[in-house]
UniProtKB/TrEMBL annotation:
<keyword id="KW-0808">Transferase</keyword>
<comment type="similarity">
    <text>Belongs to the trehalose phosphatase family.</text>
</comment>
<dbReference type="InterPro" id="IPR006379">
    <property type="entry name" value="HAD-SF_hydro_IIB"/>
</dbReference>
<keyword id="KW-0328">Glycosyltransferase</keyword>
<protein>
    <recommendedName>
        <fullName>Trehalose 6-phosphate phosphatase</fullName>
        <ecNumber>3.1.3.12</ecNumber>
    </recommendedName>
</protein>
<dbReference type="GO" id="GO:0005992">
    <property type="term" value="P:trehalose biosynthetic process"/>
</dbReference>
<dbReference type="GO" id="GO:0004805">
    <property type="term" value="F:trehalose-phosphatase activity"/>
</dbReference>
<comment type="pathway">
    <text>Glycan biosynthesis; trehalose biosynthesis.</text>
</comment>
<keyword id="KW-0346">Stress response</keyword>
<dbReference type="GO" id="GO:0016757">
    <property type="term" value="F:glycosyltransferase activity"/>
</dbReference>
<dbReference type="Pfam" id="PF02358">
    <property type="entry name" value="Trehalose_PPase"/>
</dbReference>
<feature type="compositionally biased region" description="Polar residues">
    <location>
        <begin position="44"/>
        <end position="54"/>
    </location>
</feature>
<dbReference type="InterPro" id="IPR023214">
    <property type="entry name" value="HAD_sf"/>
</dbReference>
<comment type="function">
    <text>Removes the phosphate from trehalose 6-phosphate to produce free trehalose. Trehalose accumulation in plant may improve abiotic stress tolerance.</text>
</comment>
<dbReference type="InterPro" id="IPR044651">
    <property type="entry name" value="OTSB-like"/>
</dbReference>
<keyword id="KW-0378">Hydrolase</keyword>
<dbReference type="InterPro" id="IPR036412">
    <property type="entry name" value="HAD-like_sf"/>
</dbReference>
Length: 390
């Protein structure tokens, strides 16, 4: 099936994606190398973070708006509150109208397997909010045993990769499945199958061996940033230590500042301080996730590029034979959705319980629905195999 026509046929009246929401606000891109007379490398610390800009910096350049927009509140049903019930009714109505644009992957399952007919599905999965629930403490974002069993079954039938913002080691510790491929730090740290062709074409690609002695390809396009990320991580810990609830994580090739447990009245302060720190690092930028500020190297690499890299290293680039599916919930997953949409090769599935503009084609409400969808895929493939199909 021609992917271009099949994409078009899914959404008879596609609503254009609101680019202003998907494109990075220019103020969040940090400072490009060309912009800074001191690049490459970080700036002098003479206008250090101690001489902070005014709080208006954060308000006027859109950081605060972006922090709020990236962090929709969770809905709670309060008994006996008619106003609350009315508001939830409205939200549900709004959600269902949004689903006309991003149909449920569960309701569209027959359509999806029809698109996958005679093709090999390649499965790409985000971790937080996709395989695990979003929890207050990111160290406690564990996936359930039933989800682990499901993902193991998925990997038995389809090449499967986890692409996460966490460090590769951390996400492996949480998932604990050796059957998968892993891309950590938003795709900046990938372990894939051995590929001499890729190692020749990518200078940051090296042949290596994993813990079990298997030959693998290790790809780390931001390797030179390791000392800088380590340094900025320590700085971020220092500047947020007096803000109750703030948590900083080192993801090896990027760092994140979580404000999930920070009082909203302190969001401006936290945004301002991170903003000020980045003034010293022109080769780093900040992006917004769900109640988290991600500090990342300014390099032309993201989850979308990681998907392309993995497809290439797995020998799955032929759109006539392969159907990539990417399931994710965060802003950073949009890069992957976009790659699939623009190449007419596969489909993004957004995990969201609220209305969001997206480059995905389908939606799932939460990790429970993700598990149901994955189980449907496994059952379908089992039946296919039983009947002698590939
Ligand atoms: Mg996520």
């Amino acid at each position: 099936m021609d992917m271009k026509s099949s994409h078009a046929s899914l959404l008879t009246d596609p609503v254009p994606v609101n680019k202003s929401r998907l494109r990075m606000h220019s103020s969040l891109l940090g400072y490009s190398q060309q912009d800074s007379p001191l690049s490459p490398g970080k700036c002098s610390r003479s206008n250090s973070r101690k001489s902070t800009g005014s709080v208006d910096d954060v308000r006027s350049n859109g950081w605060l708006d972006a922090m709020k927009a990236s962090s929709p509140p969770r809905k709670k049903l309060l008994k006996g509150s008619s106003a609350q019930v009315a508001s939830i009714d409205f939200d549900i109505e709004d959600y269902f109208s949004w689903m006309l644009e991003y149909p449920s992957a569960l309701d569209s399952f027959e359509k999806i397997i029809d698109l996958a007919k005679n093709k090999k599905i390649a499965m790409f999965l985000d971790y937080d909010g996709t395989l695990s629930p979003i929890v207050d403490d990111p160290d406690c974002a564990f996936m359930s045993e039933s989800m682990r069993t499901t993902v193991r079954s998925v990997a038995k039938y389809f090449p499967t990769a986890i692409i996460s913002g966490r460090s590769r080691d951390k996400v492996f510790d949480l998932v604990k499945l050796t059957e998968l491929y892993y891309a950590g730090s938003h795709g900046m740290d990938i372990i894939g199958p051995i590929s001499s062709t890729l190692c020749k074409s990518h200078p940051d690609c090296v042949k290596s061996t994993d813990q079990e002695g298997n030959e693998i390809t290790l790809f780390q396009p931001a390797r030179e940033f390791l000392p800088m990320i380590d340094e900025v991580f320590r700085t971020l810990v220092e500047i947020t230590k007096d803000i109750e609830g703030a948590k900083v994580e080192n993801h090896k090739f990027c760092a994140s500042v979580h404000y999930r447990n920070v009082e909203e009245t302190n969001w401006t302060t936290i945004g301002q301080r991170v903003h000020d720190v980045l003034k010293d690092y022109p080769r780093l930028r900040s992006t917004h996730g769900r109640k988290v500020l991600e500090v990342r190297p300014v390099i032309d690499w993201n989850k979308g590029k990681a998907v392309e890299f993995l497809l290439e290293s797995l020998g799955l680039t032929d759109s006539n034979d392969v159907l990539p599916l990417y399931i994710g919930d965060d802003t950073t997953d949009e890069d992957a959705f976009k790659v699939l949409r623009e190449s007419n090769h596969g489909y993004g599935i957004l995990v969201s319980s609220v209305r969001k503009e997206s480059n995905a084609f389908f939606s799932l409400r939460d990790p429970n629905e993700v598990m149901k969808f994955l189980q449907l895929l496994v059952n379908w493939k089992r039946q296919e195999r039983k009947h002698g199909k590939k």
